[in-house]
Design brief:
Number of strands: 0
Strand content: under 5%
Shape: globular
Largest sheet: none
Length: 371
């Protein structure tokens, strides 16, 4: 009896048809990936989201600071004056200019009624879920994997469904990156670029996502799309320059400087931060670390341009967080968290196609020859 070509996917995984030698190499890499994920058990626990300089006299959190800035702007204050005064009062660093967030999110939230940011957050999260549901529906023809993918999507967006976190820039920017990824298709990239621009104007680290998309479009020969991403980055660079000039007008050499972004906490910290950004925070860290490894393997298994982009974006932010993040900036992982756990839905097909060459045994057929 012939075996089914796939288990859950509509098409074979990226590892289908591998020879035994290559499949064993991939299995070895997978084992190394799991071991690397388990280094999350050795990195320090993320610190409370508190003043970056570590010298502040206040016990307020970053979230409280962002909320105070929104309240100040809503009360009629100039954004840069309100933001720098609030950061200064909390003992936060004001140099370099990147320590002060760009005004986009605070200004928009200040213009909305008190219930506005929560409603807008729910609508954006629902739109992300809808777009990704349609993309996954085409890849998962059966009901059970579709239900599983929906549950994984909810688990990935656990932090993004909490209106109390609406003042967090990474919450919005992470959703916009997920939306941009889900909307992008070959030949249809304008919407994706537009949402990428908005993500960068809310949180500067979204520029890494735009750079990844630019490079992949260029490599794939999508020249017009690559130029679109380049134009988006140029627009962001202009806005960032204007932001730097505005910050310089309300700060001085006596303001505290940032301790820097060179935490060098490694891949394990990325794994731990990503676990804390999703429903994996509810399971023991050892199990969460291995699940993160399975998710990464799952994204590598799905043979689709969307999966390739997701995997490269994850790798880029893993490098960013592993090299530059400090223990109190673990929330950078929110930038890639909204759909991360969905990678698990691709694992069954990926594992079967990867293990099949090693498990298959030569078959000997005995025939009787009549004389």
């Amino acid at each position: 009896m012939a075996r089914s070509a796939t288990l859950w996917l509509a098409a074979p995984s990226r590892f289908a048809g591998l020879r035994k030698s290559r499949s064993r190499i991939v299995i070895g890499v997978l084992v190394l990936l799991f071991l690397a994920c388990l280094t999350a058990l050795t990195v320090p626990d993320p610190a409370a989201v508190s003043p970056g300089s570590g010298t502040g006299q206040s016990d307020q959190t970053d979230l409280m600071v962002y909320e105070k800035i929104v309240a100040g702007v809503k009360g009629g204050g100039d954004y840069y004056t309100v933001a720098t005064d609030t950061l200064r009062a909390g003992g936060y660093p004001l140099r370099p200019f990147l320590t002060v967030r760009m005004p986009s999110l605070a200004v928009v939230q200040a213009a909305l009624p008190d219930w506005g940011p929560a409603i807008l957050l729910y609508l954006l999260a629902a739109y992300v879920g809808l777009i990704w549901g349609m993309r996954l529906g085409a890849a998962l023809p059966r009901a059970v994997p579709r239900i599983f993918a929906a549950l994984l999507l909810i688990g990935s967006m656990l932090a993004f469904l909490q209106p109390d976190l609406a003042a967090f820039h990474e919450v919005w920017s992470g959703l916009l990156i997920a939306l941009s990824l889900g909307l992008r298709r070959p030949g249809r990239w304008i919407d994706a670029v537009a949402f990428g621009v908005v993500a960068m104007l809310i949180r500067e680290t979204a520029a890494l996502y735009v750079i990844v998309m630019l490079v992949l479009a260029w490599i794939e020969g999508e020249r017009r799309e690559a130029l679109g991403w380049l134009a988006a980055f140029a627009l962001f660079a202009a806005a960032l320059t204007a932001h730097a000039y505005a910050v310089s007008g309300v700060t001085g050499p006596l303001d505290p400087a940032s301790p820097g972004w060179s935490g060098l906490l490694g891949f394990g910290f990325f794994v731990k931060a990503l676990s804390l950004a999703t429903a994996l925070q509810l399971v023991p860290m050892a199990a969460a670390a291995l699940i993160v490894g399975l998710c990464l393997f799952g994204w590598a298994s799905w043979n689709d341009p969307l999966a390739l982009r997701m995997l490269v974006v994850l790798a880029a932010y893993a490098a960013l967080i592993g090299i530059f993040a400090r223990s109190d900036t673990f929330y950078w992982a929110l930038m890639v968290a909204p759909v991360f756990l969905v990678g698990l839905v691709f694992v069954p097909d990926g594992l079967r196609d990867l293990l099949r060459p090693s498990l298959d045994r030569p078959r000997i057929t005995v025939t009787r020859v009549a004389r």
